[in-house]
Design a protein that fits this description.
The protein is α/β, with parallel strands linked by helices. Among the domains are: about 100 residues, OB fold (Dihydrolipoamide Acetyltransferase, E2P), CATH 2.40.50; about 170 residues, P-loop containing nucleotide triphosphate hydrolases (Rossmann fold); about 160 residues, 3-Layer(aba) Sandwich (Rossmann fold), CATH 3.40.50.300. It is about 35% helix and about 20% strand. The chain contains 23 helices and 23 strands. A nine-stranded mixed β-sheet has the order 13-12-11-14-10-15-16-9-17, sandwiched between helices. The protein has a six-stranded parallel β-sheet with strand order 18-23-22-19-21-20, with helices on both faces. The protein has a five-stranded mixed β-barrel with strand order 2-3-4-6-5. Strand 2 and strand 3 form a beta hairpin. Helix 7 packs across helix 22, helix 9 packs parallel to helix 10 and helix 18 runs antiparallel to helix 20.
Length: about 700
């Protein structure tokens, strides 16, 4: 007998093939299936007699099969099934393509219901490939508001609809986790009734009321999760590091530029956090070039001067190497031992003899374990574990971990930092991705956030242009002149999320075109996701050394290093990138006071697309663009959100700031009344299930 916890793979008719497809949608048990909600509805509720049909209408028709034929089209090599149905007012023809099995489904005299758009052939009304089902007292696919679900290849809404309908009787067994006072306060339906109304509503208002209930519920679980995580962090012990004002002032004065107000505020927020006896969990957010690295240097030096260790982790070896050089140059007068440890780069700066030495890995690890190395720079391998489940690097007194481009590091890796040590290190994550306010209150609300909006050297010098197909040759000539003057250029190809092979092919074609035709007098390099890490590092290093004038790439991550000489960027297929993503890409150029040029190449003829790109070319506010991106593309396209596991129904409402604030207030009230949620056992049980599925930044 089926229950809510019955695994779908054990049911008749659901084999290995369907199980894999369901798993892609996060559906494993019957309860998961019932909680897989429609994202829209097709309105087939209007049932019309055949004589009353009008061209272009979306309607349902009930009729008796009066004739059925199947033939093969020799032109298109298709099977064509033609069915005639009749009611008491007339007859109409219906055509389906490549569905020969319908001759076995429909027999003369069978009553069926069809739903779709009325079309016409040779001035005769008909239906082409409508939805259909055999007549019954409970119609699911026609003659009603028909739910349309998030799908995956080979798993249609019709299949999902039929399965959900067949198990909906189990909805009465689902425990309603919302507290009674909340249901009463907001007039929410009981969960059983809400499930019926969201899957098979009688009208759109009924569906909307049910949806509101589930959106609120998912947001409540999300807020409880992050609030409890914040409390859990506060329960852990960390190093309480006193603030050395005199040293901080001395460090700031040594910088080749003055800290702006945003940097001063962010640095103070971080330093105040590190004075507490529980670990800091903060995100430093700011556009490329707003000076996040300067703050990382400042707080790392203050930690190291207290005979504690600070670790800085970058997403790539080349970026880690660049950080090492920057730290070394900035802190050369402060007598701080600095280490660089990556797969192929092992260096140690000894301030007592003022030299950088190349060491063996074992030698450097000993210096780290003894505490001699105070600032350690590397990639995520610094906190990796060996095959024996022991840390590959042992620290002496790790007090601060800084993660550059935090979405590149897994949730488990960050959690390990809090759980592996008796005294957990303070954690500072950094990102160049602007985060809209609504996401800051949900997905990122387990972190405190510091924001950098100002640029240390004033406004960036980046001019952006929309380049339609007819103006490409002019742009190439402009770029050629700039390259002759000694500049370098990036060419960014759009990423197709589902296929690295397609990405690589598109980039390779662009590379060949530029290398062999357009810019054959200049060195051109190619970088894409299918290259090995070592190859990527070598190409980036050569580009940094100006061996190549042009770098064709498929991802911003590989061009994350600061190449001061690269001040030109072409973004191919610019309309396929999010606004915030383009903004972050172009932040790689126009640095250190130099003029940058960003060309937004597009072949689109859409007025809307061109208008959007022109607006993007004019705007230079990352936060405004991120909010616009959220409105246009939805939160599911933002880095770090796609893989979070947040249910679609909540994901699609992440832009609703007022609702988020309302739910957060309720979550805070609940935790104030019952810190461990024992007063709400059903809510606690649901939260535990939710926590297993959802992983936030």
């Amino acid at each position: 007998m089926a229950t809510l916890k019955t695994e779908l793979k054990t049911l008749k008719g659901i084999g290995e093939n369907y199980t894999k497809k369901l798993n892609k949608l996060g559906i494993k048990i019957i309860k998961d299936l019932l909680m897989h909600f429609p994202h829209r509805y097709d309105d087939y509720s209007r049932v019309t007699k055949i004589v009353d049909l009008k061209y272009g209408e979306m309607v349902s028709v009930h009729g008796i099969v009066s004739d059925i034929k199947m033939r093969r089209s020799f032109y298109r090599h298709q099977f064509i099934t033609e069915v005639k149905i009749e009611d008491d007012t007339g007859e109409i023809k219906i055509t389906w393509f490549n569905q020969p099995y319908l001759t076995n489904t429909f027999k003369k005299g069978t009553k069926i219901s069809i739903a779709g758009k009325v079309t016409a052939v040779k001035n005769k009304l008909n239906f082409i490939s409508p939805d259909y089902e055999l007549w019954s007292n409970t119609l699911v696919h026609t003659s009603r508001l028909v739910p349309v679900y998030p799908e995956t290849r080979g798993l249609s809404s019709k299949w999902l609809r039929w399965r959900i309908h067949s198990f909906l009787y189990l909805a009465k067994n689902i425990t309603d986790y919302l507290p009674e006072d909340l249901k009463k306060k907001y007039s929410f339906l009981p969960i059983c009734e809400a499930l019926q109304n969201i899957h098979f509503p009688d009208n759109l208002k009924q569906a909307s009321i049910a949806r509101d209930r589930f959106v609120f519920g998912e947001f409540l679980l999300l807020q409880l999760k992050v609030l409890l995580e914040r409390e859990a962090i506060k329960s852990k012990k960390s190093f309480a590091l006193p603030f050395d004002k005199e040293l901080a002032q001395k460090l700031v004065k040594s910088f080749p530029f003055k800290l702006n107000n945003d940097q001063k505020k962010a640095a103070w927020e971080i330093l105040k956090d590190m004075q507490k006896s529980y670990p800091m969990h903060r995100l430093l957010e700011g556009d490329v070039g707003t000076g996040k690295t300067a703050i990382a240097i400042l707080v790392s030096a203050l930690v190291a001067k207290q005979e504690k260790q600070a670790v800085i982790m970058a997403p790539t070896e080349i970026l880690a190497s660049q950080h090492f050089e920057t730290f070394l140059e900035t802190l050369k007068d402060f007598e701080l031992p600095i280490a660089l440890l990556t797969r192929s780069l092992i260096k140690f700066y000894d301030p007592w003899v003022e030299e950088v030495r190349i060491l063996k890995e074992a030698e450097l690890k000993k210096k780290i374990e003894s505490g001699e190395a105070r600032i350690i720079i590397g990639t995520h391998s610094l906190i990796a574990t060996s095959a024996k489940k022991t840390p590959s690097v042992k620290f002496n007194s790790l007090a601060l971990v800084i993660i550059d481009e935090q979405h590149r590091f897994g949730v488990e890796q960050r959690a390990k930092l809090l759980n592996e040590y008796v005294e957990a290190p303070h954690l500072l994550s950094m990102t160049a991705t602007p985060i809209p306010r609504s996401l800051a209150l949900t997905v990122y609300s387990n972190l405190d956030i510091s924001i950098l909006k100002e640029f240390p050297t004033g406004k960036r010098n980046i001019k952006s242009f929309v380049v339609p197909a007819k103006k490409r040759s002019d742009s190439y000539e402009f770029i050629r002149e700039k390259l002759k003057q000694g500049n370098q250029a990036y060419v960014i190809c759009p990423i197709i999320q589902e296929s690295e092979k397609i990405d690589a092919k598109a980039a390779e074609e662009e590379y060949k075109k530029l290398k062999n035709d357009i810019f054959k007098e200049f060195g051109v390099a190619l970088l894409h996701g299918r290259l090995k890490s070592k190859e990527k590092e070598e190409i980036m290093r050569d580009f940094l050394k100006r061996k190549y004038k042009i770098l064709v790439a498929t991802s911003v991550v590989e061009v994350g290093v600061d190449v001061a000489n690269a001040n030109i960027m072409i973004i191919e297929g610019a309309e396929r990138f999010g606004m915030a993503q383009v903004h972050q890409l172009r932040g790689r150029i126009g640095r250190r006071g130099k003029q940058g040029y960003c060309m937004l190449f597009t072949n689109s003829g859409s007025r809307t697309t061109i208008a959007r790109l022109k607006a993007l070319a004019k705007l230079d506010n990352g936060f405004a663009l991120a909010q616009k991106d959220l409105e246009i593309r939805g939160p599911g396209q933002l880095i770090g959100i796609r893989q979070s596991g947040i249910p679609d129904i909540a994901m699609n409402s992440l832009g609703n700031l007022e609702l988020i604030k309302q739910v957060r207030a309720e979550a805070e009230r609940i935790l104030k009344e019952a810190k461990n949620l024992k007063k709400y056992p059903n809510l606690l049980s649901e939260l535990n299930e939710f926590t297993e599925k959802v992983h936030l930044e």
